[in-house]
Request: fold
Amino acid sequence: MEHILRPLAVLGGAVLITLIAGWAADQTVRRIGARHPETPLWGLLARCRMPLRVVLCTALLRAGYRSAELPEEHDAAVEQVLNLILIGACAWLAVRVATAVVESGYARYAAGAQDPARVRRVRTQVTLIQRVVTAAVSVVAIAAMLLTFPAMQAAGASVLASAGVIGIVAGIAAQSTLGNLFAGLQIAFGDMVRIGDTVVVEGQWGTVEEITLTYLVVTTWDERRVTMPVSYFTSKPFENWSRSNPRMTGTVFFHLDHSAPMDLMRDRLHTVLKECPEWDGRAWSLVITDTTPSTIQVRALVTAKDPDDIWTLRCVVREALVAWLRREHPYALPRINTATAPGLEEAPDRRQTPPTGEDIGPGPGTT
Reply:
C-alpha cells in the first residue's frame, strides 16, 4: 500500500503547491495591473498563467519524485519524461513572457504616437521580432531535449566537429530559404514595406496583411490573398502608396466632342467634389490634355487622404460627370458617323458628254 500512497502524496503535494503558488501569482499580477492601468504589461502577463503552472508542477515533481520510491526500472523513464516536459514548459513560458513584453511596448508606443506610418513600421518590426524569438527559443528547447538522451550526448563532440561542414552544405542547399530569411529582417528594419501598407505588385493592388520571415501576404481589393516571397520586395521594384504619406492624387479621363462646355464642366466638377466626403480639399482641376480629329481628351484631377478614398472618389467623379453630360449636354459626348457613303445613283453625274460643233467652233482654214 505504501508504494501507491507515496507517489500519490508526491503528486498531490506538487499539484497543491502549484495551485496555491499560481493563485498567488495571479492575484499579485491583477492587483498590480489595477494600480497601473496605463501599463498593459500586467494584463498581458495573465497569458503566462498556464505555462507557469506547468513549469512549477514539473519542477516540483522533478525535485521530489525520488521520494516516491518508484521501481528502479521506471525511475530513469520518469526522470527523462519530466526533463522533457520541464524544458518544453520553460520554452513555452519564455515565449509567452517575451511576447507580453514586446506587445506591451508596442501598445504604449501606439497609444502615444501621432504618425500612422511609424505605428505600422513598429508593428511590422514587433511581429517579426516575436517570430524570431519564438524560432530561436524553439530551436534551443529542441536541442536541449535531444541532449538529455545519452546517445545524443555521446555524439555531441562529433556533431560539433562537423558543424562547419554541415553549415556550409546546409547554406548551399537552402540558399532560397536563407535569402528569404534575411530579406524578412531587411524589410522589418529597413522600412521598405509594413503591415497595413497599400502596395501594387505584379499588377495586383492590395494591402499588406501579414509579414513573416519567409513570405508576405497581400490582400487584394476583391478579398483575394496573394502570397509572395519576401525576397521579391528586396530584388524587384514595387509601388508602395502609403510608405511615408498615404495621401494620393488621382485622375479621371473623358473623351468628348470639341463642343464640350469646359467652363460649365469645371463648375460641375467642383460641385461634385464639395458634396463628396472622400475629397480632402487639397487640389482639383479640369483641363484638356489632348485632341484628335474627332474628340478631345479631358483630364479631371482630384485628391484624397488615402488610396481607398481616391479609388472611390474617381468612381464618383466619373459617374457624376458622365450622367450630367448625358442629361444636360448630350452634344458634348463623342459622336461617330454611321451614315453610309452615297451610291452611284445618288452621286452627281460627272461623266463628260462629247462636244458639239457649236462648242468646238470653226476649224482652221474656214471662213
